[in-house]
Amino acid sequence: MTGGLVTSASGAITLSLNPKETYLHHNGNATDTTAVDLAALGITPGMSIEFTQLGDYQPSSSGSDTSHSLVAVFSSTSTLADKSMVNRVTGAIDAGSDFVTPNWPAVTGGDATDIPEDFFIGTSPLKIIVPAGAAYIFFTDSDSYFGDNTDPDGDYAVSIAIPEPTTLAVMSGLLLLTASCRRKR
């Protein structure tokens, strides 16, 4: 993650992403991605959150700035193992529909890059329940060679929408009311 953190009027959080960063196994051509602290964003296990990939990136020096590819994994720790390891996210926690990262033999020497716990985030909203034990989340694009990726217009990002506290309070109140009405019957 390259840094930018913006909260919109709707309460959605936007994190700027660096397409050169990854948590996947690689041959040294990438930068390690930074773990995003969920608690710092007000996100806790059991919450329903919504991810949307924003913008795009350029996957090579000769490509165009039009690639849409974002994958994420929840983790209990902020630790990444060495780039030579396939399972670099040491505390990876499964969530969402598993995304299978392609194997790029020419770049990784035939080594696998897929981890079973990560999921794809597209340009349409994806709702996910934050899994038990999740304290961090890592983001990456799905690419064969990360070192030549760029984001010329600086718009590659992820939006994370979380429920508003007032909405949560109303929903909690309705659930309690429903439960008490059922007990009285």
List keywords for this structure.
alpha+beta, single chain, 23% strand, 2 helices, 185 residues, five-stranded antiparallel sheet
Give a description of the structure.
The longest helix has 20 residues, at 165-184. This protein has one domain. With 185 residues, the chain is of the alpha+beta class. The protein contains two helices and twelve strands, in the order E-E-E-E-E-E-E-E-H-E-E-E-E-H.
Content of β-strand: 15-25%
Through-space gap between termini: 53 Å
Uncertain spans: none
Number of domains: 1
Radius of gyration, Cα only, in angstroms? 18 Å
Architecture blueprint of SSEs:
Elements: E1 5-7, E2 13-16, E3 21-22, E4 31-32, E5 36-37, E6 48-54, E7 71-75, E8 92-93, H1 105-108, E9 119-120, E10 126-129, E11 136-140, E12 157-161, H2 165-184
Parallel strand pairs: 3-4
Antiparallel strand pairs: 1-2, 2-12, 5-11, 6-10, 6-12, 7-8, 7-9, 7-11
